[in-house]
Design a protein that fits this description.
The complex is a heterodimer of chains A (265) and B (61). Chain A is an alpha+beta fold. Chain A is 22% helix and 37% strand. Chain A has five helices and 14 strands. In chain A, strands 1-2-14-11 form a four-stranded antiparallel sheet. A four-stranded antiparallel sheet of chain A has the order 3-10-5-7, with helices on one face. Chain A has a two-stranded antiparallel ribbon with strand order 4-8. In chain A, helix 1 crosses helix 5. Chain B has a single domain, classed as Homeodomain-like (Arc Repressor Mutant, subunit A), CATH 1.10.10. Chain B is 43% helix and 0% strand. The chains are: A alpha+beta (265), B mainly alpha (61). Chains A and B meet through strand 9 of A and helix 4 of B. The structure holds iron/sulfur cluster (SF4) (2 copies) and zinc ion (2 copies). The site of one iron/sulfur cluster (SF4) has 14 residues of chain A, from helix 3.
């Protein structure tokens, strides 16, 4: 298996995975989206809310704020924790939010008791308060995974496509139609006017070039063991870390599975 | 209030809302969205189609 980094930019990563099966590539995609654990606000107690939004709406908005934790590994999922899910500092981070109007309440107003935990974006508007309106909330965040609830989704857009191989045969008469038709600028015309692939990584395998070519000279063949993978994190962690934790998560499950199988035989 | 995340993909979009709202007064929205790094069509429609009614409604609070 070979991994080649194509692009890495903060919360976005694009890499070429070759020598793997589609099942494996899809495994990484799914784990990135729904199984990488992260922190999100789980339960709140509203002591005062005289704002325009209902309590439930505020609860939803607060829950969806992504949280960054420097020490994410030190937290346990509530059901795996020593406390047995009752709640302790090992599986919970308490916070308090207390703002008095007028003004906007932002995600930076959520103050956690653990200094390593903060909102990933400090300027998410939560609710606007008028003169004399008040919002006082106390609660805690827990660590879980995206398949429990969408607020724990640490990956947003994660996907893959097969790497294509673009072949132009000798039948090409240099009409240039495919070059014009390609929405991804994956083809150009060389000096002789013949079509040539330039940007194979960008090709989306839409096959518009095949349709438009009267000479039948273009062939788009997906290479079945190479994948262009894209992952984007929702802000809890850099994209690089997201993919790394996804692979760790797969490994952890594989080990568990192996142990279960050993039990059976 | 602008939704915190995109309904479809889950990317946080509320963090650019205030800048977007200020800048579209003088610039074309498409260009502002490009600048802010909101490049998926699902996230773009969240900002493009949002109507802030909170300021109107709160008068009747
Ligand atoms: S459309 Fe076909 S014939 Fe025309 S340039 Fe492209 S490959 Fe060649
Ligand atoms: S399949 Fe689509 S994206 Fe790929 S080269 Fe042909 S027209 Fe371009
Ligand atoms: Zn605990
Ligand atoms: Zn989106």
């Amino acid at each position: 298996m070979k991994v080649e980094l194509l692009e890495l930019e903060g919360d976005r990563i694009r890499f070429l995975l070759s020598g793997a099966t589609m099942a494996f590539a899809n495994g990484i995609r799914r784990v990135c989206m729904a199984e990488v654990p992260c922190l999100a606000i789980d339960e709140i107690a509203l002591y005062d809310n005289t704002s325009v939004l209902f309590d439930e709406q505020i609860a939803l908005r607060i829950g969806l704020v992504p949280l960054k934790a420097e020490n994410l590994d030190t937290f346990a999922r509530p059901e795996d924790c020593e406390c047995g899910g009752q709640g302790c500092p090992g599986c919970r981070v308490d916070f308090i939010l207390s703002v008095e109007g007028p003004g906007m309440v932002y995600s930076r107003d959520i103050h956690f008791t653990d200094p390593g935990v903060t909102a990933a974006f400090d300027n998410i508007p939560l609710v606007v308060l008028g003169e004399g309106e008040k919002l006082v909330i106390e609660g805690f965040a827990t660590k879980r995974i995206g398949s429990d609830h969408a607020k724990w989704n640490s990956g947003t857009l994660c996907g893959y496509k097969s790497l294509p191989s673009i072949e132009i045969s000798g039948a090409c008469n240099g009409c240039g139609k495919c070059v014009k038709e390609c929405p991804r600028q994956a083809l150009i015309q060389d000096e002789g006017g013949r079509a040539k692939a330039t940007n194979t990584l960008n090709c989306s395998l839409c096959k518009l070039c095949i349709e438009v070519c009267e000479a039948g000279a273009v062939k788009i063949i997906p290479i079945l063991d190479s994948f262009v993978m894209t992952a984007e994190s929702s802000g809890e962690m850099p994209a690089k870390e997201l993919v790394a934790s996804a692979s760790q998560e797969i490994r952890k499950r594989a080990v568990e599975f192996e142990a279960k199988l050993a039990e059976l035989s | 209030m602008i939704p915190v995340r995109c309904f479809s993909c889950g990317k946080v979009i509320a963090n650019v809302w205030e800048e977007y709202r200020e800048r579209i007064k003088t610039e074309p929205p498409g260009k502002v969205l490009d600048d802010l790094g909101v490049d998926k069509c699902c996230c773009r429609r969240m900002l493009l189609s949002h109507v802030e009614i909170v300021d109107i409604l709160r008068r009747y609070q």
